[in-house]
Write the structure tokens for this entry.
Amino acid sequence: MARKAARAKMPTCRVGRSNKPSGFTLVELAVVLLILTVVLGLVLPEASSILFRSDLKASTRRLAGAVAYARSQAMLEGRIWELTLDLDANSFWAAAVTEADPSDLDTIKKRTLAGEVRFLDVKKLLDETKSAGRVALKVHPKGLVEPAVVHLAGPGKRIQTLFIKAFNGRLAIHDGYVEEEVPAS
């Protein structure tokens, strides 16, 4: 008993202790969650549109890279190359035109469009617009590329139009579905 009385009177260190209640009330937590919900509701739609746009940009860069690769290889090797766009599989590849069986694509690296991006359609200079199947664009040893208009669709109803230029193989890029390129002024 004497021990209990001694302990009760013994001074102890009060560091980290307070007589005030600590923590947050339920109302304070609810207000913070409400504010976070409102802020995220405003920010996330904008962030998602940026992410979808980046898939479209990545697909455009991949396609531009494939055109440049086919053009440089055709010029280096002195023979015709083809850039084949598979509209059904949303893939493409560049390969030299050979007498071998064109269905043997094991040695050719197929590239795909990024994310949910897909080919809408492709129109070559004098051909009809194709929205299914395969389209082959010829690249000549002198550096000439068969001109074409490629329409890509991404999530969120975003559409991009790519004009493949004949003489330098570069791409002119426009937002939206554009049938003919508008000359720059």
Notes: The two ends are 100 Å apart (CA to CA). The beta strands are 81-86, 91-96, 111-112, 118-124, 129-130, 134-139, 148-154, 158-164, 171-175. The longest helix spans residues 26-77. The domain at 26-175 is CATH 3.55.40.10 (minor pseudopilin epsh fold).
